[in-house]
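ligand=NAP
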Amino acid sequence: MSTQSSPPTLLLVGASRGLGHAMAAEFVKRGWNVMGTVRGGTARTLLHDLADAHPGHVEIEVLDICEPLELAALSERLAGRTFDMLFVNAGTTNRDPSQTIGEVSTEEFVHVMITNALSPMRVIETLAQYVGPAGLIGAMSSGQGSIGNNETGARELYRGSKAALNMFMRSFAARHADSSRAMVLMAPGWIRTEMGGAGAPFTIEENVPRVVDVLLSKRSTPGLQYLDYLGRTVPW
Ligand SMILES: NC(=O)c1ccc[n+]([C@@H]2O[C@H](COP(=O)([O-])OP(=O)(O)OC[C@H]3O[C@@H](n4cnc5c(N)ncnc54)[C@H](OP(=O)(O)O)[C@@H]3O)[C@@H](O)[C@H]2O)c1
């Protein structure tokens, strides 16, 4: 639990670059302490630069979310810790997102579904125990994960993986219906990152502070919500 003398704490999974790194920087800017994860073998990431710039406020842990043994080891290392927020940002897409679902290879289907749907939920199932009763558990979904809003197709494997993530998170929330903790599936908007591409309408600088605003505003609201970067409910 945070007190006035100890800053609130975020465990941010997938913080090496892109939206994850920018979220880490934004939370630090707002006075939080952040433990961010990167994949092992990554030489140096933007998160390392952030840690150097803010000594004592950024811890770096190693986790490939698709490696259950790494997850179990991280969980052991966290014994005794409590966080105010756990947020799983890590995600991926297939090499050619324009492929229809019939064109996607089995190998890419498995990779994207495991990375975007199964692994974030394994992280949440394993690490939720370290989130305090007034805390928030979140995952980076996407507006593309909305079944109700899908009237165009395109990015079909990615859409399916985020819709699956949403469904699994709803099951988690249903099993924890008596929990006082807030839960958020975030649709951050289409943002210029390596994944979002140069044609995306939003910059990291525009939308990451909005995403952080929404997460902070939902901290004391128990139950699961699927929200966009302005705090608007996204249809399932
Ligand atoms: N950009 C957008 O427009 C947009 C829109 C909606 C939702 N999102 C979602 O937002 C999240 C971040 O996207 P981004 O745009 O920042 O993408 P990005 O620049 O490609 O970054 C992806 C992040 O996920 C990490 N990651 C991927 N696979 C991982 C694994 N197996 N284990 C641990 N970390 C892993 C990457 O780590 P490495 O550095 O080790 O590869 C990196 O930190 C994703 O979940 C994405 O689906 C993005």
